[in-house]
Design goal:
single chain, alpha+beta, 4 strands
Length: 97
C-alpha cells in the first residue's frame, strides 16, 4: 500500500519556486534515502501541481513531509491532500491471490 500526496500550487509556481527549490529537493532526497518516498515530481502542461508517492499504510509520513516542506511553509502550495492508494502491482504491493 502507498500514500499519494497531491499538491495544488500557486499560479506561476515555476517562476516563484527558485528561492526554495534547493531546500525542497533536500527534503525530497532525505525522504527517499530513508525509504519513505518512492516517486516525486511536478505535473506539467499545465504546471499546476505535484505528486509524491510514499510507502506505507498510514498517511502520517506524507502529512509530516507536507507540513515541513519549504514549498508549503512558504505559500507556494495552495492546498495539499493525502490519498491511500491500494497498490495492486509494484513496489510494496500485496502478493497476488
Amino acid at each position: 500500500m502507498h500514500q499519494i500526496l497531491f499538491y495544488d500550487v500557486v499560479e506561476n509556481f515555476t517562476d516563484k519556486r527558485a528561492p526554495f527549490r534547493g531546500a525542497h529537493l533536500a527534503c525530497v532526497r532525505q525522504s527517499f534515502e530513508r525509504g519513505e518516498l518512492v516517486f516525486a515530481g511536478a505535473l506539467a502542461d499545465p504546471a499546476d501541481g505535484a505528486v509524491l508517492v510514499f510507502r506505507g499504510s498510514s498517511p502520517e509520513t506524507a502529512e509530516t513531509f507536507a507540513r515541513n516542506d519549504p514549498y508549503v511553509k512558504n505559500g507556494l502550495v495552495k492546498s495539499w491532500r493525502v490519498r491511500k492508494w491500494m497498490t495492486v502491482i509494484g513496489d510494496n504491493a500485496p502478493p497476488p491471490m
